[in-house]
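Notebook entry, structure prediction.
Reason for the run: the old model in the group folder had no record of what sequence produced it. Starting over properly, with the input documented here first.
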Amino acid sequence: MAIFLTKDSKVIVQGMTGATGMKHTKLMLADGTNIVGGVNPRKAGTSVDFDGTEVPVFGSVKEAMEKTGADVSVLFVPPAFAKAAVVEAIDAEIPLAVVITEGIAVHDSAAFWAYAGAKGNKTRIIGPNCPGLITPGQSNAGIIPGDITKPGRIGLVSKSGTLTYQMMYELRDIGFSSAVGIGGDPVIGTTHIDALAAFEADPETDLIVMIGEIGGDAEERAADYIAKNVTKPVVGYVAGFTAPEGKTMGHAGAIVSGSSGTAAAKKEALEAAGVKVGKTPTETAKLAREILAG
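New structure, fully documented this time:
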């Protein structure tokens, strides 16, 4: 099974003809992703050859959906144009938009997040500033390396891109149902809670690994949700135990104020909800192994 993305997903790439879009479209195709088109109004009607696979370019998301039945868009659009690209995807009512772009202004992210809500939340947004999501052996929408793990029974949701990859590698012998990188910006679409709910409902996910980081209160809210709604075992890790208080760290969302937002406060909230929390990614992986071994 999988959440949000399966082998049947038909993927388009907004910004496919740019350097980053070309590079990652090639990698996604190599992972078996069913990429049915790209979107670039200036290159509509052309196609791009990816090692023998011809991918057509359409003038809009709407046209791409009408001609291909696409239900997922991955966005590699520069920050200045990202808001317009996401709004276009929302207007076309594509079910899933995966916004990889880093450096989108927070007010732009807030605007398209609110716009999606005003339009009835017909488009699930993952990101921005995220590595995307992968269902190993089926489909890969984003920039997660496709060769570091295999299909399995762990669900992973993470704020951090690099820690997503590390956790997938640490537990590669067990494998993953899906791994979702939600991004670390202050305003994101899909949250820890959305992914937790989906993994709880997925019959082939036996254990959930949740990676958070300092700043904000998303992990505390997730802990509250887990306590009330999640029956599957959850293992957690919070990046930033050694971060100095009051200092803004690398991610835009990693701002610590007072005791709220610290790694210790998040660890405490998660443990109170029955989540086993590791002090390092490796220790977290070890906890997951112990639970699955029974």
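Summary: The longest strand covers residues 151-158.
The old model has been moved to the deprecated folder.
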